[in-house]
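Notebook entry, structure prediction.
Reason for the run: the old model in the group folder had no record of what sequence produced it. Starting over properly, with the input documented here first.
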Amino acid sequence: MSGTTIDGNVLNALNGKMPTGGGAGADLQDSFMTLLVTQLKNQDPMNPMENAEMTSQLAQINTVSGIAELNETLAGINNQIDAGQTLQAAALIGKGVLVPGNRVLAGEEGQTTPIGIELATSADEVKVSIVSESGEVVRTFEPFSMSPGVETLQWDGRLSDGSLAPEGAYRVVVSASLDGTTVPTNTLNYALVSGVSPSDRGPLLDLGGISDQVTLDDIRQIF
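New structure, fully documented this time:
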């Protein structure tokens, strides 16, 4: 054979020595060295491998080995990040958070959970209504302006006629506009973090049935 070409016999000699899928850097380097030595043993004496070819292949060995070691390092960093996120999430147990959702709870003596509104752009008119489970609007807030970001409202638990709302869950309906043009809104509801569980998406927060499990990225405000 000539130059750097390797025939089937040489490849058969290497059978079982090449790493199969994500081997360590040392294994990759060892396999490439085996391949290079086999090339040298089987090269054509009349047309030997040139120094430039040898240097090029040695550089490839170092490159592959370096990439494998980099991947191992990145995997270790990712594990540390996951562990840090889990500790961060565990610290939220027992605390209240605002997450995407449109539910508000009314309790005894007008006690209610906070309402959150998130806007990406300013609005000169934001309207908020409280709707019962039957779909009846039971309370409407005075329109107000709002800058981009998150703001919280507190419903006093009273209906439009001034009486206390019955205990239970209600729905919050929000609309916003700027100079008559609709502005996208994101309604947020309050929930208490009662537990944390791991997942492929990172730590999931258990909100005790007030909302579906959420990730840390879903939290807009912590109380």
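Summary: The chain has three helices and 13 strands.
The old model has been moved to the deprecated folder.
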